[in-house]
């Protein structure tokens, strides 16, 4: 699966199986984390076999089986870069057969801060094998969210998905 296909197939998943992520996939994820950190000056970290990502109440209600997660962190003001790299990591994980969930407000901030050593955590991304593949949300058509004066170039059509709508 390539990144474009991952964009179509990736949906938020909050409940995970207890199947561990194989070491070769963990190595690929860590390599991608290193690339993002080096390119953007971030401090993203992958945690595996660690159930400290979300508080106990959330585990009972919203999130089950979250034992692997990325801590999205960097210097002050790096929130947007963390978001960009988080999208990259979520799509890359999808190409490897994994599911993800960006957890912005309900994660264990204190625990993340302790694990990241000096950087500012902005969220975590749960990663693993979902109990389901998630469901797509209602989306608008390309025509509802974009316009182009004159004949639109192919790069524009590709970017907003017009060729998939007709």
Task: Provide structural commentary.
- By secondary structure, the chain is an alpha+beta fold.
- It has one domain (3-132): NADH Oxidase, CATH 3.40.109.
- It has helices spanning 3-9, 23-40, 56-61, 79-95, 109-116, 142-145, 154-160, 162-165, and strands spanning 45-47, 69-74, 99-103, 120-128.
- The protein has a four-stranded antiparallel β-sheet with strand order 1-2-4-3.
- Helix 1 (3-9) crosses helix 4.
Task: Please report the first level of CATH classification, the CATH class.
Answer: Alpha Beta
CATH homologous superfamily grouping: NADH Oxidase
Proportion of residues in helical segments: 40-55%
Provide the gyration radius in Å. Answer: 17 Å
Which fold name corresponds to the CATH topology?
Answer: NADH Oxidase
How many strand units? 4
Question: What fraction of the residues are assigned to beta strands by DSSP?
Answer: 5-15%
**What would you call the structural class?**
alpha+beta
Give the number of domains.
Answer: 1
Mean pLDDT, all residues = 80
Widest sheet, order of strands: 1-2-4-3
Low-confidence spans: pLDDT under 50, at least 5 residues? none
Spell out the key features of this protein:
166 residues, alpha+beta, NADH Oxidase, 4 strands, 43% helix, globular
Structural topology:
Elements: H1 3-9, H2 23-40, E1 45-47, H3 56-61, E2 69-74, H4 79-95, E3 99-103, H5 109-116, E4 120-128, H6 142-145, H7 154-160, H8 162-165
Antiparallel strand pairs: 1-2, 2-4, 3-4
Helix pairs in contact: 1-4, 2-4
């Amino acid at each position: 699966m390539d990144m474009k296909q991952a964009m179509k197939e990736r949906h938020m998943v909050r409940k995970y199986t207890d199947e561990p992520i194989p070491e070769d996939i963990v190595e690929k994820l860590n390599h991608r984390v290193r690339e993002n950190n080096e390119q953007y000056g971030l401090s993203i970290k992958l945690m595996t076999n660690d159930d400290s990502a979300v508080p106990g109440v959330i585990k009972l209600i919203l999130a089950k089986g979250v034992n692997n997660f990325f801590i999205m962190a960097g210097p002050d003001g790096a929130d947007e870069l963390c978001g960009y790299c988080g999208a990259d990591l979520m799509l890359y994980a999808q190409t490897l057969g994994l599911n993800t969930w960006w957890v912005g407000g309900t994660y264990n901030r204190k625990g993340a801060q302790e694990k990241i050593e000096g950087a500012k955590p902005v969220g975590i991304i749960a990663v693993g094998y979902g109990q389901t593949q998630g469901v797509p949300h209602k989306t608008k058509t390309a025509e509802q969210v974009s316009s182009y004066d004159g004949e639109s170039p192919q790069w524009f059509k590709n970017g907003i998905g017009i060729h998939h709508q007709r």
